[in-house]
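Because discrete structure vocabularies remain unfamiliar, we reproduce here a specimen of the format, pairing a chain with its fold in token form:
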Amino acid sequence: MLKILIAEDMVMLRRALAELLALEADFEVVAEVDRGDEIVPRARALRPDVAVLDIGLPGMDGITAAAALGAAVPDCRVLMLTGLGNPSTLRRALTTRATGFLHKDADPAQLVGAIRAVAAGKRVVDPQLAVAALEDVTQPLAPRELEVLQLAAAGEGTAAIAGRLFLSPGTVRNYLSSAVVKLGARNRMDAVRIAREGGWI
């Protein structure tokens, strides 16, 4: 029986994953968490064989959590899930203990097979993501846009960022808006998430 921990902050997706995996006779979902900083404590207590981790988690991103999990529970294998498939994210994830990397729109049978493979010590990477990871991907933001976004990611408000960088609040808003557009994000926080997954901030 393979014991599985699922970390996904979207409730509907997390429950669907748990129910899907519970259909497999040799799988047991022992934990479901919605925050990255809950992964290691639950894994220490329950000793799962495989952790299926979303990358974009609150509290601690999935890639950082995978590295922490490797130190805390070295016998637990890690399969990362992403909705983006950003090549630099893949490269960053593979520098941790993640041995599997799948896009969230993968076929359910592919996910089940990937879990069994990583549990057996094999590396599984979505073929399209692997090809994309070999491409030269450059960070699209100008230095000032990146600096402003990094401060926003740290929780700084527009006025505070303006004060730190000796800019007007309107200029800060313009830089943030430009970053949102260039990253194809929905809003400022989505831009922060994309930049983090890309390993740019």
